C-alpha cells in the first residue's frame, strides 16, 4: 500500500471489524475459515475481489514462503496468540476501561447497565480460547498436512543461554508448543558470556551443530545442552 521514494512496498493492516467473533452473521463465529477466505480466487466482489487475494495466493506457491508462513502461524499460536495469554490480555484491557463503561452506556443508551458490555467481553474471551484449535485445523486442511505434534524444548542453562525457535526467542528452562508434520522447523543455540553450546538431544538422540532443522513425525522432545567453563 505504501513505500518510501526509494524502498520496498509495505503492508497496511486496516478494517479489522470482523475480528474476535464480531459481525456479520455469515462469519460462522469461532470456526470461520479465514485462511480459505483470504485465498479465494474469485470472491467475486466485496469483500474478496480477485486482485485482493492474488498476492497471497501467488506467494503460497513458493515452497520456502509456504513453510515460513505455516511456521509463523505456529510460532504465533504458541506464543502471542496462546489462549491463556490472549485471555489475560483481554482481561487486562477490560479492567483498564471498566470504570468508564457505565457513563458510556448512560450517554448513548440511557441506561447505566453494563451487562451488554460484559457479554461482549465474554464472547472475546471464548474466541481467544477456542480459535487456535480451529485455526490449526484450517491450516491442516488448506495445506493437506497430516498432523500437528507436541514439541517440548529444554534448556539446561536458561539464565545463561537462549534458544531461537523459528521466530521465537526462548530462555525458559522448559517450553511447550505444537508444530505441523512435514514442515521443517529451525533451532539455533545462542550461548551467552563464556557459556559454550555442546549439542542437542532430540528424543534422546545426539545432534551436532548450533543451528539445525528438524521435521516432526511424532511428539518430540528437544534439549539444548550448554556447558559452563
Give a quick set of tags describing it.
229 residues; alpha+beta; Immunoglobulin-like; 2 domains; 5-stranded mixed β-sheet; 4-stranded antiparallel β-sheet; 9 strands; globular; Spore_coat_CotH_CotH2/3/7; kinase; kinase activity
Fold blueprint:
Blueprint: H1 34-38, H2 50-59, H3 63-77, H4 83-97, H5 101-109, H6 115-143, E1 148-155, E2 161-165, E3 168-170, E4 174-180, E5 185-191, E6 196-202, E7 205-207, E8 211-214, E9 220-227
Parallel strand pairs: 1-9
Antiparallel strand pairs: 1-4, 2-3, 2-5, 5-8, 6-7, 6-9
Protein name: CotH kinase family protein
Organism: Psychrosphaera algicola
InterPro entries: Spore_coat_CotH_CotH2/3/7
Protein described:
GO terms for molecular function: kinase activity. This is CotH kinase family protein. Keywords: Kinase, Transferase. This protein is of the alpha+beta class. It has 2 domains: 1-145, no CATH class; 148-227, Immunoglobulin-like (Sandwich). The protein contains 6 helices and 9 strands; from the N terminus they run H-H-H-H-H-H-E-E-E-E-E-E-E-E-E. The strands form 2 sheets. A 5-stranded mixed sheet has the order 4-1-9-6-7. The protein has a 4-stranded antiparallel sheet with strand order 3-2-5-8, with no helix packed on it. A hairpin with a 2-residue loop joins strand 6 (196-202) and strand 7. Helix 4 packs antiparallel against helix 6.
Amino acid at each position: 500500500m505504501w513505500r518510501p521514494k526509494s524502498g520496498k512496498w509495505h503492508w497496511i493492516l486496516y478494517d479489522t471489524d470482523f475480528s474476535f467473533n464480531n459481525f456479520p452473521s455469515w462469519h460462522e463465529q469461532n470456526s470461520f475459515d479465514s485462511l480459505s477466505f483470504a485465498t479465494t480466487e474469485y470472491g467475486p466482489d466485496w469483500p474478496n475481489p480477485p486482485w485482493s487475494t492474488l498476492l497471497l495466493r501467488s506467494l503460497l506457491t513458493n515452497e520456502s514462503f509456504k513453510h515460513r508462513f505455516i511456521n509463523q502461524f505456529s510460532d504465533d499460536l504458541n506464543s502471542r496468540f496462546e489462549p491463556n495469554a490472549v485471555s489475560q490480555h483481554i482481561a487486562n484491557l477490560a479492567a483498564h476501561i471498566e470504570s468508564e463503561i457505565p457513563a458510556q452506556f448512560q450517554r448513548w443508551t440511557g441506561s447505566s447497565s453494563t451487562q451488554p458490555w460484559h457479554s461482549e467481553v465474554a464472547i472475546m474471551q471464548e474466541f481467544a480460547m477456542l480459535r487456535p484449535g480451529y485455526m490449526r485445523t484450517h491450516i491442516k486442511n488448506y495445506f493437506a498436512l497430516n498432523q500437528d505434534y507436541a514439541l517440548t524444548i529444554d534448556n539446561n542453562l536458561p539464565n545463561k543461554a537462549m534458544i531461537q525457535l523459528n521466530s521465537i526467542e526462548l530462555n525458559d528452562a522448559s517450553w511447550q508448543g505444537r508444530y505441523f508434520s512435514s514442515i521443517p522447523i529451525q533451532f539455533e543455540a545462542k550461548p551467552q558470556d563464556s557459556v559454550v553450546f555442546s549439542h542437542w538431544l532430540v528424543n534422546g538422540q545426539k545432534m551436532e551443530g548450533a543451528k539445525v532443522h528438524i521435521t516432526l513425525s511424532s511428539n518430540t522432545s528437544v534439549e539444548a545442552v550448554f556447558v559452563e567453563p
